[in-house]
Amino acid sequence: MAAKTLTIDGTMVGAGEDQTVLEAASDAGIRIPTLCHLDGIAPVGACRLCLVEVTGVNKLLPACVTKVTEGMEVRTNTERIQKYRRMILELLFAERNHFCAVCVSNGRCELQNIAAELGMDHVRYEYRFPKLELDVTHRLFGMDHNRCILCARCVRACWYVEGAGTLNVAGRGVNSHIIADLNQPWGDSDSCTSCGKCVQSCPTGALFYRGATVSEMERDRDRLEYIVTAREKKIWIA
User: Could you read off the pLDDT of 11-53 as tens digits, one per residue?
Assistant: First the structure.
């Protein structure tokens, strides 16, 4: 694999030709915040928090799906980028009903952590306060649409890691929401294997183990990457 040399925030970085800017930055110890990205699951560039500036390109580019090129100059934390990241976070909070104090993932939520990291102490946009349902029909898991940010990590884990194809996104725009099978109660799904990979992949309190209460929801973020890597290396095949 040919190596590429690029500059990220003034630091010379080496990367494989198939790597993304996000992967190259991570390998170099440079943090770029993300919400829809999770190691082990194919990137889609949905949340746009990982936007970066690339010299010679007028628009901001999502680092998770932008391949490195030779001589690329990348900036990850300019005033312009900070402005857009703050706006994206505020819109996410305003779109649904995120009440951190009574959430199962309080203190272990990626959305909450990034908001604190970027110093977001208020929302400048009008809250929508939509009337969204809580699906606890599954015998093991629950789905709270109020806390969903539509990152689709659960959908990708269900389709491409477990291979069940139970979860999907229905609707358009602000009416988009996660559904099970043909938009039926999760507990009535015939395709769900109850593997829990979707719950492990969720960055917020939208998917949780039934019985978990405030601040109790814990996840193993490395589990899905381990499974995918093990399959690629065929370590489970005799």
Answer: 999 999 999 999 999 999 999 999 999 998 999 999 999 999 9
Edge-to-edge strand order for the sheet containing 141-144? 134-135, 141-144, 207-209
Let me know whether 143 and 216 are in one domain. Answer: yes
Structure tokens at 211: 């019985």
Domain boundary among 56, 77, 98: 77
Give DSSP secondary structure letters for 51-102. EEEETT-SS-EETTTPBP-TT-EEESS-HHHHHHHHHHHHHHHHHTT--GGG
Instruction: Answer yes or no: do 37 and 142 share one domain.
Output: no
Residue 113 structure tokens:
């952590």
According to DSSP, residue 227 is labeled H
pLDDT in tens, 206-223: 999 999 999 999 898 888
Contact 30, 11 (CB under 8 A): yes
Range of the domain at 8: 3-77
